[in-house]
Amino acid sequence: MSSDERCHARNALKMLMFLVTQQLELFEADLGSGKPIPGTKKGRKKKASSAACAEMIRLRWDDEVSGLVEQVKQLCLLQLHMLWEPPVIEEDFVNLIGDLCFRVLDNPSFIRIQEVREPVTSILTRLVRSYNYSRTGAIKLSQLLVMCEQPQPNQVVHLVNGFLAGQQNDMRCFVSAFLQELASYSSADLEKNTAGTGALCTFLVEFTQLHPDIAEQSLPHFKERLACDPYSLRNCVLSMISSILSKRYLSNSELDSKQRAKVDRYLDTLEEHVHDLNGFVRSRCLQIWLQIVEAKSLPYERMGRLVELIAGPQGSLLDTSAMARKHSMKILAAMLECNPAVRVPTDQLNADFEREVKILQELEASQDPELVQKELTWRRRIIPKVLQLLSQQVRSAAAASATDAAEAPAAARAADGDDSEGDAAAEDEEEEGIGEEETAEAVARRIYDNFQRNRVSRAIRLFALAHDAFTDNPIFSTRIEEVPNSDSQPASASQAEAQSQKLRVQAWTDRLKDIYMGEAYAANSRQSEACAQIAKQQTLIACLRQSLQFVEQVKSAIPFVVAMLGSSTQSDILEAVAFLLAGHQQGMAECAPGFKKMLGLVWSKEAAIKQAVVSAYEKMYTEVFVDQDAGIGPDEAEKLRVSAIVGSLSQLICSATLGDLLSLEKLVCEFVRSGVIDKPVVQGAWDKFARRAGNSSQDRRAAVILLGMMAAEEPGIVRANTQLLVSEGLCADCTDLQLVQYTCVALQRMAATPAKAKSAANAAAGSGVAAAPESCRMPTESDLFQRLLDIIVSSASGESRFWMPMMEQAVSVIYTLADSPDQLAASLIRRMARLLLDCSRRKSVTAAAAAATAEPADAIQLDDADAEAADAAVEMSDDGPEAPQPSLTLASSMLAKFVALVGHVALKVLVHLEVAVLAELKRRTALKEANKGGETGRASAVKASKRKSVQPASAEDELGLEGASADDQEAEQIRRLLDDVLLYDERHLLSHLAPLIVHVCEQPASFQSEQLQAAASLALAKLMLVSGKFCEQHLGLLFTLAEKSQSEVIRANLIVALGDLAKRFPNLVEPWTASLYGRLRDSSARVRLNALNTLSHLILNDMIKVKGQISEMTTCICDSQSRIAHLAKLFFSELSNKGNALYNVLPDIINRLSDAETHEDHFKEICDFLFPLIRGDRHCEQLVEKLCIRLRSAEQPRQWRDFAYCLNLMTYSERMLRKLLEHICTLADKLHETEVYNCFKAIAANAGRAAPQGPAAAAAAAAAGGGPGDLAGCLAELNAKIEEFHLKQVDNEEAMERAEKAAEKAAKKAHHRRKRSSAAASGANAAAAAAAAPAADGAGPSGAARGGSKRRAAAAARRRTAVFSDSESE
């Protein structure tokens, strides 16, 4: 082409590209602004058609753009530079094409379309490769990622992948420049542009995962961001380090020294940010560590340091961030699985460590220390470099020809990148090669010197040269003797070559070691083996030391993890459960305390927590591994599984406390419900219970407890084997009272639980049929009850402490399963009374027992013939303190058991009447009404219609209360029987035995046995539960015992009984509420704990009104017993969720605590816990007003300080500050107190720091009706008034002090003057009396003297007045 033609084509090309670019920008601007697109119709009537047309144009525009960029791509593939003279395209034209591409990419809809993105990628690649667009393109691409309104980081990743898709490496430079451009953005700009920062971080993380090698080259530019904000960029850099480690290094087992140094630097960076200032960074860093540990890529020597960072004194387990704590516990759990040392007991590890140390000392004593040190240096520092360089050299030599073998050292030199600093300089200074006259020994010496100077690569190159120069010398001979073996011949030539290279490397390594260690070492094979053994022993000891350190650090973290089980954060609890499960699976006995605490979480209301606990215990105790390779058949494997499950659950039951058994029962019910405990396991438990031979009493008890727990969910388990329970658990020769007790518990599970009975009753009521409940009651003559009575009576004379719990469960079985339980109870009391008569020698006790032996006519009733004998039971001897005491301890023990039996029978009578009898009465009434209604339904309907037409219906008929009144009548009948008949009608046995119990409680001096007093007091409480009338009569006695009893056990028991009485008879106990609160000040921690639990239960269930007396419970927050303090905090946390209860009483609590002179530190601790529980702006605002009013009326400085401290605990909003500002004038007289003044200054300072800043805060304030400066003005006014009143009051106080001092000084002066004047007057009178002159003309001077003294007194008075006036002015 001619010059003119090229010019014409060039201009046409420029104009065409300019027009295309402008058209694209204009069309995109119209589409983005929503303006009418040219070519569409205007007008309101054409709105719908215009929208449809615009949408069609948009769809067509996508196709047009894809075709456009494809045409531009084809254009760029031409030799466009030939149109310019000289053949260099103008920079403006290149930028025009680039702007076109980035304008297309700026549209989110275009960058997602592959047909658009790929041509644009090709165009930019062409511009970068051919037209020097690298710098400009990198800037534009970074702006596309960071400055775009709608960033698309994922699409930018696809775009960059397109740049790197080709085989050429020139685009790697462009990508590196792009990454450097991203790293150049300032932190301030990134902190403002949150969307762009998020896009930048997302891109860097995804790009590093795909191209870790390129990202690592630019990582130094980004590592500077680890020391500045925003925190999201720090997270991004840490994620990049994580990807680089996982992709390039940690997955590679053959790392050279430089690579190991890089890994150490990266891991050091991660360790530094475990304790970053930002919680999100700490959490992300710990998450990276978790990924490393789970991938089993953590170096062994790093485990101890990581555990120290997590479980140390300032470790991440104590972090304020919940996510950081979560990842910390995950890391510990993962490390338990990675380190087998935790499976070995610590004692055994210590023993192994000490044994290996002794072995090492013995080996070192028999060897040369210099040789041992050389061996260690060879193994730890030299051999890794030697193996790496030799492998590279052997591969290079294998690739080269035989004639070019001399080039192998050069290849090794080119591959060398692992020498220490200074090696390259030494190579430049010294000449490589072997002299013509140099001997093999001299070359070996040079190789040794290079090893000593850590010049490993130079030593290897010299050895390679010597190997070729001294082929026959044994020092450098590396002949390989291959032993043919047909079984191990390589399958291919490549495998044969690999085997040959491996043997060659090993031969060279042996020769190099001989040179380094010396001739003596090489000649003495025994010595070389000993040195190698020492090196191995030292490595083993180092490994054992690290294992011991790791195990000890992990065990020190267990208490912190166990404490997490009580956290209010769900993730803490879930991760703590997972860690304890991992510890159990690794056999760590230190996790046992956590298992017991974890067991209580089975009652959690959070479904996730409950499921995690159930799943953990299922894995610990029900999952059994059976080795299938051991040749065990299916039947035998099933037996092993059942035996293991029953055995593990039985062992758990044996080690459980009474509280743990309740939680364990809930857990077993979950197992039964989910099918984990199936029929074979149930049968295994029955077999263990029934087999006496081979099973101890403890095993049988555990089996029957387990069966009872299963029956709580499935009663049929016990119903199907009742006879087995009776024959084995209640046998005639049974002496194990605990076995009898738990057998009775299992028997009670035959009956439906109250919840299931209620649901069945509701279902029956819903169906309209009053069906009889499923009954499990047995005849009174059943062998079961006779055995129970025999066991109770026969074992009563013993001294077993399990008799009373066994008796209570046996009586419960009688009232649960017997048809006529009253008859059995009466028979039992008679038999116990006869036994008591045999053991007692006291007349009153004998009379009471004789009364009990009377034969009742029906149930627990007495006939007329035995009334006199029953009266004798209450005629207790009243001989006072001189009354003779029982001569036998057995009599007191028997009497205690007798009164305990009477009390429990009374309680069971109450339950029987109010539950079983009342339910049966209601069922019969409903059945009778249903039958009656069916027979006369039609006739009654006709009569009812006639009655309605004559007279209006009654109120009960209209409201449907006829059935309710019938129910009330039955309940009233039961209540009347309990209140007025059971304990007062002489025909009932309990009415004659109750005075005996009252007498024992009233006469502690006569009945001094603590066991007897405890049993009698509990029996009295149970009798009071039966009758409200009896309760009212003896309530004072019970409270007296609860307050003044010398026995801690009695006080602790009675506080629980009083809680039951408060629930049953709240109106009777309400006047005694102060006495209940008083038990919180008991000297016994056990009594305080029971009192706190009882009051918490009553208050949270609305049995007691929340009043100012609750301040007594706040003192438990500072109790010396940690459990009491924890329960008190838990109570107030629950109370704060019950409406306004805590808010209403908080001012009274503060007032009472301040008046009671509570220690100020305790007062602050209590308030620090209570005030954050008050939520809601309105409550906080009103609380500020109440506290200000109480502060105004307070008189003592201690109260001023307390109320000011409480005001300082609150977080102030603008409304609260205004409320405080309204009352500040009334508090002016208190601000001279230093602590009060400091509290008010702190309020203002904290409110200023917490005030929202920026335009968003101003907009929020304007929306709320206030200007942006209202809060600042309020704070300024508050500060000014605080300072003004403080200074004024301080001046007033100082003036008052000066006035008082001046008054004291003036009073002293006046006193001295009066003394002087009185002395002068007495002297004058004496002189006048002694004068001999007549007094006729002496009246004038004496009168003048008297006038002078009056004038002096008046002057003194004037001076005192002046002093007081001056002091007042001051």
From TrEMBL:
Subcellular location(s): the record lists: Chromosome; Nucleus
Q: Which family does it belong to?
A: Belongs to the CND1 (condensin subunit 1) family.
- Which keywords describe this protein according to UniProt? Cell cycle, Cell division, Chromosome, DNA condensation, Mitosis, Nucleus
Region: Disordered, residue numbers: 407-440, 930-967, 1294-1370
Write down what this protein is called.
Condensin complex subunit 1
- What SUPFAM superfamilies does the database record attribute to this sequence? ARM repeat (SSF48371)
Q: Name one GO molecular function term.
A: histone binding
- Species the sequence originates in: Macrostomum lignano
Superkingdom of this protein's organism = Eukaryota
> What region holds the Condensin complex subunit 1 C-terminal domain?
1049-1208
What the entry lists under InterPro entries is as follows: ARM-like (IPR011989), ARM-type_fold (IPR016024), CND1/NCAPD3 (IPR026971), Cnd1_C (IPR032682), Condensin_cplx_su1 (IPR007673), Condensin_cplx_su1_N (IPR024324)
Low complexity compositional bias, start-end: 1318-1344
Top-level taxonomy: Eukaryota, Metazoa, Spiralia, Lophotrochozoa, Platyhelminthes
Q: What does this protein do?
A: Regulatory subunit of the condensin complex, a complex required for conversion of interphase chromatin into mitotic-like condense chromosomes. The condensin complex probably introduces positive supercoils into relaxed DNA in the presence of type I topoisomerases and converts nicked DNA into positive knotted forms in the presence of type II topoisomerases.
Which Gene3D superfamilies does the entry mention?
Leucine-rich Repeat Variant
**Which parts of the chain are coiled coil?**
none
- Cellular component terms per the entry's GO annotation: condensed chromosome, centromeric region; condensin complex; nucleus
Q: Where is the composition biased (Acidic residues)?
A: 417-440, 955-967
User: Which biological process terms from the Gene Ontology are attached to this UniProt entry?
Assistant: cell division; meiotic chromosome condensation; mitotic chromosome condensation
Q: Locations of Basic and acidic residues compositional bias?
A: 1294-1307
Q: Where is the composition biased (Basic residues)?
A: 1308-1317, 1348-1361
